[in-house]
From TrEMBL:
Pfam families: Peptidase_M14. It comes from Photobacterium rosenbergii. Belongs to the peptidase M14 family. This is M14 family metallocarboxypeptidase. It comes from the Bacteria. Residues 30-307 form the Peptidase M14 domain.
């Protein structure tokens, strides 16, 4: 359904220029601390994992280092599993679910995989609780060569420098009420387009790759997560956020075509998780646990395929 919105920035029907983007940026404020809430948790893992810096955001390199957590006893004889969180910095459980997985579960999977965790790909977005970076660029539409997003470009370079093939990639996200009340409206205004309202699904779902959907992997993740939280139902048209479901709680996107994070490699087993933190049925902690359950569900499934 089309909705007429006069977003407070720009002229309806006209894409933003530099002035509008500067106006948008001036309205962003720091609401939480990446250093205190994320970096301190990563630092606490240094005695158990190899933690390194793979870059820093030019907006403030000291404040926004980009950090990666790797399992020890790295071996090229083991497959590599990548976990990414905070590609959209405002999606809180993506960040803290990745950190919880590192702290509580990652070591037991290191027997089977080299584990690589980038828990907060967009630390500025984390602090201002926004989907975009300061240039009004969406990092999760920017995973391509010569990317305009420092966040995406830095992550792609780090993965390339690993020098290994990624077998499994779990990218942790949320779908929030603010997607509809703010971010989709802002995107339409930025691009000079109409805004079409979409239902926000109440529950967890995954996004597979249209070109490599791996339905059994997605099912294993859904079955793991349903022990923690509820699975999103489709709307009256059998869709979730405008896409037809392929099975309970699963939709597919053309990941590489859309330049999404989960399409950054040619992994065999890939998924994007979507937690709904605004539901009155869940707590913040349960959202984090659901992300962990998604990762472990995926890894347990892949281990069975490798046996």
């Amino acid at each position: 359904m089309k909705r007429e919105h006069n977003y407070p920035i720009g002229t309806p029907g006209t894409p933003w220029g530099d002035d509008e983007k500067a106006q948008w940026l001036a309205q962003q404020t720091i609401k939480r601390s990446y250093q205190e809430e994320v970096v301190t948790k990563i630092d606490a893992l240094r005695d158990r994992f190899d933690v390194s810096q793979y870059g820093a955001l030019s907006y403030d390199p000291t404040k926004y280092p980009l950090l990666v957590i790797k399992s020890r006893n790295w071996s090229n004889d083991k497959p590599t599993a990548l976990v990414t969180g905070g590609v959209h910095g405002y999606e809180t459980s993506g960040v803290h679910g990745a950190l919880m997985f590192a702290d509580t579960e990652a070591e037991r999977y290191a027997e089977h995989f080299n584990i690589v965790i980038a828990p907060c790909v967009s630390p500025w977005g984390y602090e201002v609780i926004n989907r975009w970076n300061p240039q009004a660029v969406d990092p999760n539409r920017s995973f391509f060569e010569n990317s305009p997003s420092e966040e995406a470009a830095s992550l792609m370079a780090m993965v390339k420098e690993l020098g290994v093939e990624i077998l499994v990639h779990v990218d942790l996200h949320e779908t929030t009420d603010s997607d509809e009340t703010e971010f989709r409206r802002a995107r339409a205004a930025r691009d000079g387009l109409d805004h079409f309202e979409e239902m926000i699904p109440d529950g967890f779902y995954t996004v597979g790759d249209t070109e490599n959907p791996q339905p059994e992997l997605q099912k294993a993740i859904i079955d793991s997560v349903r022990k923690v939280t509820h699975i999103a139902p489709p709307d009256a048209n059998g869709k979730i956020i405008g896409s037809p479901i392929t099975q309970e709680g699963v939709i597919n996107y053309p990941l590489k075509e859309l330049s999404l994070c989960n399409g950054l490699s040619d992994c065999t087993y890939g998924t994007t998780t979507e937690v709904y933190p605004d539901s009155d049925k869940v707590t913040d902690q349960e959202c984090n646990v659901a992300q962990v359950a998604a990762i472990t569900g995926a890894l347990d499934y892949v281990i069975k395929q490798l046996d």
